[in-house]
Amino acid sequence: MQSQVVRKYSNEFLNIGVDAAALGMGNAVVAGTRDVNAGYWNPAGLVNIEDNELSLMHASYFANIALYDYAGFAMPLDKESAVAISLIRFGVDDILNTTQLIDANGNIDYNRISLFSTADYAMTFSYARRLFLDGLDFGANAKIIRRVIGDFANAWGFGLDFGVQYRMGGWSFGAMARDITTSVNTWSIDEEAFATISDAVAGQNQELPETLEVTLPKLQVGAQREWLIRYDYSIKAEVDVLMRFTQTNDIISSSAVSASPAAGLEFGYANLVFLRAGVGNFQNLTQLDGSEQLGFQPNIGVGFNYKGIHIDYALTDIGDQSAAIYSNVFSVKLDWKLFR
């Protein structure tokens, strides 16, 4: 019989974000995303693409220990609908496996050390369509999740996301519901491999972990406003709220729902150069002395756009302003109009 656990934090690699432009704005883009990367942020925004688009991103975290890669491709079906596919990998490679370091006679043999990787994968299929009301768009994601921990354990998972956007004048509003039906990972554990590590400390044998992992739904809502100044200058500002339906360390927290705000600002010149800044992930962090301190995640970024080639950079963190070393994130987006 399979045991099941509902986790507050599950499949967290899917919450990091993609696209350096979005990361530079503090992930506050659910209302304004309108390109290939909308497949991740809010699939409803895919209906705004005019031609095929390709997006690539690479990032490293924790002093290059963990690598994060993303690729997305989107294409319009007609003037009313579009589809996209994306792939995410977050992994740590070449981990030393020292479980066999000591042989049966108690001797240390370094030749018995091996290497393994732990990696999380997600493939997402997106569909978007304009609805009956002018300015109202709808999108949905079906995602397949694959998680691997060397030869010790692996899992398959599945989840659904739904998103909407509504545009009115210079305003855009958006909502993205992730794991709306809850996502479930089914783990397969190599019991023989697990046995070699479960009794590593005498008297502290570990039991097999749960084999069904349930990810609770999350909801992100936002509003964006754009201003065009003298045709050459533009300003884009967005405020989002991310809600989890469980109690967490978010700045707003209760037994029913927890929430954290995010805000982003982008200044553009001639649709050529962009400066960005954002802040989000507000958390109540418990210090060593038991007191609480407010943590948050600030980000900055720049971008360049030339004839359908978009190059973006963000200086960002995976947690708050002090939890981890800041990372340099680069992404590239290609618009197919470049080749026409």
Give a quick rundown of the structure.
The chain is mainly beta and 340 residues long. The protein is built from three helices and 18 strands.
What is the CA–CA distance across the termini?
57 Å
Give Rg in angstroms: 22 Å
Task: Say how many strands there are.
Answer: 18
Residue-averaged pLDDT: 86
Q: SS-based structural class?
A: mainly beta
Fraction in helix: under 10%
Poorly predicted parts: 200-204
**Strand residue percentage:** over 45%
What is the topology, as strand order, of the major beta sheet? 2-3-4-5-6-7-8-11-12-14-15-16-17-18
Description of the structure:
This protein is 5% helix and 56% strand. A hairpin with a 3-residue loop joins β14 and β15 (273-286). The chain contains 3 helices and 18 strands. The chain has 340 residues and is mainly β.
List the helices and strands and how they pair.
Layout: E1 4-7, H1 20-24, H2 38-41, E2 53-61, E3 66-76, E4 81-97, E5 114-130, E6 136-149, E7 153-168, E8 171-178, E9 183-189, H3 191-198, E10 212-215, E11 218-229, E12 233-244, E13 252-253, E14 258-269, E15 273-286, E16 292-306, E17 309-316, E18 327-335
Parallel strand pairs: 1-10
Antiparallel strand pairs: 2-3, 2-18, 3-4, 4-5, 5-6, 6-7, 7-8, 7-9, 8-11, 9-10, 11-12, 12-14, 13-14, 14-15, 15-16, 16-17, 17-18
